[in-house]
Write a structure and sequence with these properties.
This protein is α+β, with helices and mostly antiparallel strands. The protein has helices spanning about 1-5, 60-70, 105-110, and strands at about 10-20, 25-30, 30, 35-45, 45-60, 80, 90-95, 95-100. The radius of gyration is 15 Å and the shape is globular. The two termini are about 15 Å apart.
């Protein structure tokens, strides 16, 4: 899927969020993320805030394939990839993915990756 949204060596932004500040926000797949973070107050159990950290990285499929696998295996979570050039957005999670394509038509993605889609009537 990602090769339909991003090209190798393209600069992308990676957003990663966690409830509460942790050191694990600083790296993703062994790659350092920016020291820039945004703290947003949100009510959530015992924690009082959501921290979002972002980094500008070059898209390298082998690295990101491993990150997406970690997300699917619920080792990693709350990660979103955004292309500033194409505006394509890819947000994988442990049960699937959300894709917001702007530079490629949704119908072409549906045709290319139709086997990945849910067989439920609502396609969720």
């Amino acid at each position: 899927m990602t090769d339909a949204l991003f090209t190798e060596a393209e600069q992308i932004f990676v957003f990663r969020s966690r409830i509460g500040e942790t050191d694990e926000l600083n790296t993703l797949g062994g790659t350092s993320l920016s020291d820039v973070s945004v703290v947003m107050p949100v009510p959530y159990e015992d924690e009082e805030y959501l921290v979002v950290r972002a980094g500008a990285l070059q898209w390298k499929p082998p690295l990101f394939d491993a990150i997406v696998r970690d997300i699917a295996d619920d080792i990693e979570a709350h990660v979103t990839f955004v292309s500033p050039a194409t505006r394509n957005i890819y947000a994988p999670y442990d049960g699937g993915m959300d894709v917001f394509p702007f530079a490629v038509s949704p119908s072409s993605l549906k045709a290319r990756f139709g086997a990945w889609r849910s067989r439920r009537a609502d396609q969720l």
